């Protein structure tokens, strides 16, 4: 508390308490070591700094970035994930009767197949190869 200036004349008690709280919170965050994200734990071999940088710098819509974020953090509710946390009765896809993984959901299932083909073509154009 010795490093936080006292209440100013023009400052109400509520504002002063909030300033103390914000300062103590900032100090607590500063001394707490940061925990790696779940995605980083699951794929430690990936170069996550590069992935986050590329995602931030990619000239695409906010919706696309939000979808990439969901995929990277594995927060799309697949039956595999829901079954693991005991919410879904089975871990199979309702449509194809195979394991409902994130990769299946994003590349093989429903309308996402069209999106996956479009993404493959876009990547192929960038790399100048045949998909």
As a whole number of angstroms, the C-alpha radius of gyration is: 23 Å
Give the rounded overall mean pLDDT: 81
Residue fraction in strands: under 5%
Subunit arrangement of the protein: single chain
Q: Which spans have pLDDT < 50 for at least 5 consecutive residues?
A: none
Structural class: mainly alpha
How many beta-strand runs? 0
Largest sheet: none
* Coarse morphology: elongated
How would you spell out the order of helices and strands? HHHHHHH
Helical residues, percent = 55-70%
The number of helices is: 7
Domain count:
2
Cα distance, first to last residue? 62 Å
Q: Could you characterize the architecture of this molecule?
A:
With 131 residues, the protein is an all-alpha fold. The chain contains 7 helices and no strands. It has helices at residues 13-31, 38-42, 48-57, 62-72, 79-84, 102-107, 112-127. It starts with 12 loop residues before the first helix and ends with a helix.
């Amino acid at each position: 508390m010795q490093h936080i200036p006292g209440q100013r004349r023009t400052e109400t008690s509520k504002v002063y308490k909030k300033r103390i709280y914000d300062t103590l919170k900032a100090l607590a965050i500063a001394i707490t070591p940061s925990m790696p994200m779940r995605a980083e734990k699951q794929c430690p071999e990936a170069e996550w700094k590069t992935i986050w940088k590329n995602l931030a710098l990619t000239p695409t819509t906010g919706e696309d970035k939000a979808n990439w974020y969901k995929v990277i953090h594995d927060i799309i509710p697949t039956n595999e994930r829901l079954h693991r946390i005991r919410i879904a009765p089975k871990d199979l896809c309702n449509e194809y009767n195979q394991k409902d993984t994130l990769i299946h959901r994003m590349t093989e299932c429903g309308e996402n197949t069209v999106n996956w083909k479009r993404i493959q073509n876009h990547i192929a154009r960038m790399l100048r190869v045949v998909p």
